[in-house]
Amino acid sequence: MSGPRLLQIAHDDPAAIRAELLAGLLAPTATIAPKYLYDALGSRLFAAITELPEYYPTRTEAAIFDREMRPMAEVLGTLATLVDLGAGNCEKAARLFAAFRVRRYVAVDISASYLRESLENLQRRHPEVDMLGVGLDFSTTLRLPAEVGDGPRTLFYPGSSIGNFTPDEALAFLRQAHAACQGGALLIGVDLVKPIAILEPAYDDPLGVTAAFNRNMLLHLNRLAGTDFAIADWRHVAFFNSAESRIEMHLEALRETRVAWLDGERRFAPGERLHTENSYKWRPDDFAALLERAGFTRLCRWTDERGWFAVFAAFA
Ligand code: AVJ
Q: Which uninterrupted H or E stretch holds 95?
């Protein structure tokens, strides 16, 4: 069996990635984009996070899909082309196959090689579905290759990944999603504002898995940028910034520390931080308004009984 087709859209070259990372390190407030949390170990640590009792988003979203699968399938109809943005192990999409009629499945993730195994498995279980894997970094621009095909598409963007974007960036992304769905729809999961006592432990768990996930970014940077971060000098910090309605994750220097690379260095004073992630929490009405501003005309929304997470179907 030949298996599903795979397509890799060119990555930035290593020198460009290195330059971007070092510029972020040298900025007045050192900042690294959250996509660098996900090397092989980082992806496994994120998977472990989703199993933590404190990390409610994944299981809350899954419960919404379990309970509302039929009404969702009814409003969305047959999915001529399902485009999974950030497919990873394709598990979330695999669950849609049970209730939705899917003709064509396009799994998009930053690395096509990471998709191979999960997509081959899925193809074996669903030989009737035409499958394509696309390696593409869509975090700055969402432009799908022509191979995805003509006609309306259903874009699937679960897990509140949209939360990594500022509201302005989220609007720009949703506008691109509106164009990319070619008259179809967007099925998107969004984490909602809730009490700080629920939010903060989800990003600072007592077992320290999220801390390991955050601190592992430094190991990844050492490989990508040739830096020499001493992991033990850094602690995980996560808190809810109410004014911005976002969880912020930082790495904070425990002591005076120096990070050096081939042709540069930066010193960090005790308490100085490196900003690694924002995770925005939305009010459902504000997110609905954002979808409308992005050009979507008809919306359906589903939430859990506690109102912690929302799934929207937005039609072009
Ligand atoms: C994958 C961006 C949805 O923001 O909840 C989990 C990442 N960071 N714990 C989130 C994350 C720390 C996650 N997203």
A: helix 91-99
For a ligand 1 pocket test, name from 32, 248, 279 the mutation site with the most ligand atoms within 8 angstroms of its C-beta: 279
What's the CA dihedral at 304, 281, 187, 155 to 10 degrees?
Answer: -160
Contact 159, 290 (CB under 8 A): no
Whole-structure pTM value: 0.95
Q: By alpha-carbon position, which residue is closest to atom 14 of ligand 1?
A: 161
- Say how many Å lie between the CA of residue 279 and the centre of ligand 1: 6
In the block, residue with structure tokens 């669903």: 126
Which residue, 240, 242, 234, is CA-closest to 198?
Answer: 240
Q: What is the dihedral of CA 238, 34, 202, 211, to 10 degrees?
A: -60
Cα-Cα end-to-end distance for the chain:
37
- CB of 56 shorter than 6 A to ligand 1: no
CB-ligand 1 contact for 42 (6 Å cutoff) = no
> Is 171 exposed, middle or buried (CB count within 10 Å of its CB: 0-12, 13-18, 19+)?
middle
- Tokens at 187, concatenated: 């099925």
122-178 pLDDT tens trace = 999 999 999 999 999 998 899 999 999 999 999 999 999 999 999 999 999 999 999
Alpha-carbon span 128 to 194, nearest angstrom: 42
203 CB less than 6 Å from ligand 1? yes
Beta strands at 234-241 and 185-191: parallel, antiparallel or unpaired: unpaired
User: What distances in angstroms separate CA 63 from CA 58, 92, 143, 188, 303, one per listed residue?
Assistant: 9, 12, 31, 15, 9
